[in-house]
Design a protein that fits this description.
- The relative contact order is 0.10.
- The chain has a 4-stranded antiparallel beta sheet with strand order 1-2-3-4. Strands 5-6-7-8 form a 4-stranded antiparallel beta sheet, with no helix packed on it.
- It has helices spanning about 1-30, 315-320; strands spanning about 45, 50-55, 65-70, 75, 85-90, 95-100, 110-115, 120, 130-135, 140-145, 150, 160, 165-170, 175, 185-190, 195-200, 205-210, 215-220, 225-230, 235-240, 245-250, 260, 270-275, 280-285, 295-305, 310-315.
- The chain folds into 2 domains: about 40-190, TolB, C-terminal domain (Neuraminidase, 6 Propeller); about 225-329, TolB, C-terminal domain (Neuraminidase, 6 Propeller), CATH 2.120.10.30.
- The chain is globular and about 45 Å long.
- The chain has 2 helices and 26 strands.
- It has about 325 residues and is mainly β.
- Strand 11 (about 150) and strand 12 form a beta hairpin.
Length: about 325
């Protein structure tokens, strides 16, 4: 009888360990690690100018906010417990598309929000991480990175940070692959006429004809955050390995020597052209109080000729965007 009691106790112990393991495994399956610091902050310029939509610290780790550049006034776009990122305006400026994580779901999915009605529509739901969405020039479809590779083991339980380029209609139907499956890609961008496709590949920045004809061509080594100019003949991108090294360059799509746009300091990333093509907005990460105090992210604007550098807002814009002094510089 004592033997039976011991065996029962052992079984109970094993069952408890098994339950704990299952809970731990389930938790692991829903993990979604993201870049440290400000590297997961991004923004988009409204087609008509005058507004930026961006993500910053909020209720869900990251929420979406709208910045009026004329009044320097911030309004909340989302206020949810979810984690929103990568917001982008539609060509008519009436909607935004973005990525969002949900509790107990290890993947981010795409969502469309009507800025007038505030109605939100979920576009994707597969077990794949969907991010970096952008509209086609006519606004009918959305291009994005579709990542199906999930990394297991230790603290590296997250997605690979890239994948393949797909597109979907803005009503969430007609999912299509855009680039061949053997091409690893992230952050796709289309030229304003829709004829050229730009993306970050395994060895830098690549371009190709969006209709699939021709051969992809590498135009930048070790570059990221690449975007077309409104005219489509130039590309702005970030280059550098670590935060202090990051600088923004501009170069012709046809090829040639890149021009350094931000020589004053490092930590510059996420370039975005103004709609008229005369300026580039970008983010700067620096450490004003030393390494132990943590970084600060600020918003800047510079002319495409490298002149008229202007700091628009300091770290409070991204750390506490709804604060009355969020534009403290």
């Amino acid at each position: 009888m004592m033997w039976w009691k011991k065996r029962v106790g052992t079984c109970i112990l094993i069952s408890a360990v098994s339950v704990a393991a299952i809970i731990a495994l389930r938790s692991c399956m829903t993990q979604h690690t993201r870049p440290f610091g400000y590297q997961d902050i991004s923004f988009s310029c409204a087609p008509g100018g005058g507004r930026l939509v961006f993500n910053a610290i909020g209720k869900g780790g990251r929420d979406l906010f709208m910045l009026d550049l004329n009044k320097m006034y911030v309004t909340a776009v989302t206020n949810s417990p979810e984690y929103e990122s990568c917001p982008t305006f539609s060509p008519d400026g009436r909607s935004i598309v973005y990525s969002s994580g949900r509790r107990w779901d290890r993947a981010d999915h795409l969502y469309l929000q009507d800025l007038k009605t505030h109605r939100i529509t979920q576009l994707t739901s597969e077990d794949a991480n969907d991010c970096a969405p952008v509209f086609t020039p006519d606004g009918s479809r959305i291009l994005f990175t579709h990542d199906t590779h999930y990394n297991w083991g230790g603290m590296a339980t997250s997605w690979s940070g890239g994948g393949s380029v797909w597109s979907i209609k803005r009503d969430g139907t007609d999912l299509r692959r855009v680039l061949p499956s053997n091409i690893w890609a992230d952050a796709p961008r289309l030229s304003s006429d829709g004829k050229m496709l730009l993306w970050r590949g395994t060895e830098g920045v690549w371009v190709a004809r969006s209709d699939g004809s021709g051969t992809p061509r590498q135009i930048v080594n070790e570059g990221r955050d690449a975007v077309f100019s409104p005219s489509g003949d130039k590309v702005a991108f970030t280059q550098g390995q670590y935060s202090p090294d990051l600088k923004i360059y501009v170069m012709p799509v046809a090829g040639g020597q890149p021009t350094l746009l931000t020589p004053r300091s490092g930590g510059c990333f996420c370039p975005r052209y103004s709609p008229d093509g005369k300026a580039i907005f970008f983010l700067e990460e620096d450490w004003p109080n030393g390494g132990s105090a943590g970084p600060e992210c600020s918003l800047w604007r510079i002319g495409t000729d490298g002149e008229h550098l202007q700091k628009l807002a300091g770290g409070r814009l991204f750390d506490n965007p709804m604060s009355p002094d969020s534009f403290k510089r």
